[in-house]
Amino acid sequence: MQVKFGTTKQIEFVPGPNEDSHTAMILLTNGKCGEFQLAIAGSFNGISEFGEVLVPVSGVRKAVFR
User: Fold this and answer.
1) pLDDT single digits (tens) 36-65
2) From CA 23, how far away is CA 13, in angstroms rounded?
3) What string of DSSP letters covers 28-49?
4) How far is CA 14 from the centre of its chain?
5) In angstroms, rounded to a whole number, what is the distance separating the alpha carbons of residues 64 and 43?
6) Which of 3, 17, 49, 50 is deepest in the core (most CB within 10 A)?
7) pTM for the full model?
8) Could you give the C-alpha distances from 37 to 1, 30, 46, 55, in angstroms and in order?
């Protein structure tokens, strides 16, 4: 599945069927939504005032894009 970054409004993460998996519920700006099982236990990374930040998906419940 390919989704353009600019069309993503929100992503919610919930535990999957086992402790190592997570499900992502993606809401798009046009109101469409979908639920997907993550294939790998990934992470979000970026840069902050404190340097590089790496947050595992297991530590994220919701990401909102404005």
Assistant:
1) 888 887 888 888 888 998 888 888 899 898
2) 6
3) ETTS-EEEEE-SS--EEEEEET
4) 10
5) 16
6) 3
7) 0.74
8) 12, 22, 23, 19
